[in-house]
Write a structure and sequence with these properties.
Helix content: under 10%
CATH topology: Immunoglobulin-like
Order of helices and strands: EEHEEEEEEE
Distance between the termini: 5 Å
Number of domains: 1
Number of strands: 9
Length: 138
């Protein structure tokens, strides 16, 4: 049974930014020096979903970057957690989070558009996750 409109608790994703570049990272004039960001995710899963979720996947996309995908770990009693690294600062980023059941069918999905990542800054993002398929039913 499909259930549209069921909302999870908001997901908070904090982007912690760190400088990354050549071996001489303290040289601000180094043309090889590029600043990147790290995305840390913590997604709370209700107990009834934690029992049927096989995997949780996060994908970050943007107009001037290759999409970056990471499978999150999800222990039975805690939130699904993970990290996406090497994110270039910029605008128009899109974060997509999806959860799949044991048969590989989509259980829930959330998307946040127009995220701006700034160098040496932290961005907090809330995502509304929507239950696409009721866990354990067809």
């Amino acid at each position: 049974m499909l259930c549209r409109g069921f909302l999870f608790a908001g997901v908070l994703a904090a982007f912690s930014l760190a400088g990354c570049g050549s071996l001489e990272r303290d040289n601000p004039l180094d043309p090889q020096r590029r600043e990147t960001a790290v995305l840390s995710l913590a997604i709370p899963l209700p107990k009834y979903l934690a029992d049927v979720v096989q995997k949780v996947v996060a994908r970050l996309e943007g107009p001037d970057m290759q999409p970056i995908t990471a499978e999150l770990s999800h222990p039975p009693l805690g939130p699904a957690t993970g990290t996406i690294g090497a994110i270039p600062p910029g605008t128009g980023r899109i974060l997509i989070v999806e959860g799949y059941d044991l048969q590989g069918e989509l259980l829930f999905r959330g998307e946040r558009r127009d995220i701006t990542i700034k160098a040496r800054d932290t961005t907090r993002v809330e995502i509304e996750l929507v239950l696409v398929k009721a866990g354990g039913t067809d």
